[in-house]
Design goal:
Layout (H helix, E strand, L loop, with lengths): L1 H18 L4 H11 L9 H25 L5 H24 L2 H21 L14 H15 L4 H11 L4 H25 L5 H21 L5 H24 L3
Length: about 250
Amino acid sequence: MMLAVIGIGLLAGVLGAILGLGGGVVVVPALEFVLPLFGRDITIQQAVAVSQIGVLAVGLSGAASYLQQGLVRARTGYLLSPYTIVGGAAGAFLGLILPAQAVATVFAALLLYSAYNLLRGLKRVEVEREPSRLVPPAMTFAGIMSGLLGIGGGTVQVPVLNLMAGVPIRQAIATSTFIMGLTAVGNALVYQAGGLLDIPLAAGVALGVLVGARAGAVLQSRIPAAQLKLFFSLLLIFTALQLLWKYWGNA
């Protein structure tokens, strides 16, 4: 089982760092569907709690590589991270009190939205311009989604940084990875206080993510983006439908 958990973290780390998504979109549904095969039941809230550690690992490992490549807008990250941290704490609290069916539904909707964005392709903004005034509230929303759903918030942060803040796409992905590590610390503390964080599972996911995120950050410029986005979009759609069927199929 632990090898499977590490494998989940490895896949999440690679894809998360390449796309700036944090890896939670892989970790949460994967834990929900893989662990029962080994006779271990896990609720979606517990999976989200474990995913927070995976997001933290993506932030640490991926951001370290991106900093070496000079892609991280550190000043932008430090200025915007307070919004995601506050939003993340609020989202994590909601994750403790909302029913599993509601969390799964929101998660599935975000997976489908992410797939749509990937298939459509993010509009590349390579020319610097003045950031929109909507950037702070948009980043707060990204933090709420991060805390509630166990994702890095990159599904919201990358488009916000690229389209609304005028940050070039590769720097937007790198800066999003940097911010998500800061946000995940507070989120994980809330879930730990709520008694939902399984330390052994979190350690297994983190181990895989640390290796995968480092590799993903290096591979980002070498893998054909179109092929990767197509595969990942299909994966998101499949997991979203699986979640909806699990929580609504017998309703």
